[in-house]
């Protein structure tokens, strides 16, 4: 079975070793009272997430809005007049588990809802990295995470990017995303030699710069069944069987 790496921190360190990828990883630090103050002061909006977690569980969005500190998680949305007051709540919510802070990306929206993209790259039977699939994930109304298992909706990338860009530019963006998938796979395998597949969560802001929000080392292949092109899911399964996944 391919290697699974749980810690987002360790996976971020692996990405930062690549001179190309390090430019598109939003600044990430370990959570503490002082690091959160500092990150908020610099960036205004950040995400706090468990070092080990999935499906968007426990992911929080923290921002300074109109002089108030705003904390969102799941469907909760609260504002606090002081940092200290908010941090007490964050401490309760995060107690006992390691958490990270990542600079927030103001994700593009589709029909008023935030979206990001999942890029799947795999070691192919010729033992080189290949991007085998890509799909967009649109958050449920007012939600801060786009995860399918958190109520997100799967939409073809062409449709999402086509709402922002013309046809030729969409083609170019897709090529860029394919390269990111391949490079992320290579960077992970360099550090973790048993990794055979990656699912890269890529967020884009209004400038359409791709940012790597997370790399999954055991990504869900079934989301690709939602694409009209059946050959994509078939290839993903064929490749994963070749490296020993059922
Ligand atoms: N830095 C960020 N900026 C904007 N949105 C983010 C950021 N980090 C995470 N998110 C949102 O939260 C979701 C879940 O975060 P992620 O790091 O992928 O954790 P999980 O392992 O739970 O999927 C992402 O798919 C994205 O929608
Ligand atoms: Mg994710």
- How is the biggest beta sheet arranged? 6 strands, antiparallel
CATH homologous superfamily heading of the largest domain: ATP-grasp fold, B domain
C-alpha termini separation: 9 Å
Strand order of the largest sheet: 1-6-2-3-4-5
The 3D shape can be described as globular
CATH architecture of the largest domain: 2-Layer Sandwich
Mean pLDDT: 97
What's the β-strand tally?
A: 12
Organism: Cohnella lupini
Pfam family, one: ATPgrasp_YheCD
Protein name: YheC/D-like protein
Task: Write out key terms for the chains shown.
246 residues, alpha+beta, binds adenosine-5'-diphosphate, binds magnesium ion, YheC/D, YheC/D-like protein
Structural account:
- There is one protein chain.
- The protein is α+β, with helices and mostly antiparallel strands.
- The chain folds into 2 domains: 154 residues, ATP-grasp fold, B domain (D-amino Acid Aminotransferase, Chain A, domain 1), CATH 3.30.470; 76 residues, Dna Ligase, domain 1 (2-Layer Sandwich), CATH 3.30.1490.
- 31% of the residues lie in helices and 29% in strands.
- The chain is built from 6 helices and 12 strands.
- A 6-stranded antiparallel β-sheet has the order 1-6-2-3-4-5, with helices on both faces. Strands 7, 8, 9, 10, 11 and 12 form a 6-stranded antiparallel β-sheet that branches.
- A hairpin with a 2-residue loop joins strand 7 and strand 8.
- The radius of gyration is 18 Å and the shape is globular.
- It binds adenosine-5'-diphosphate (ADP) and magnesium ion.
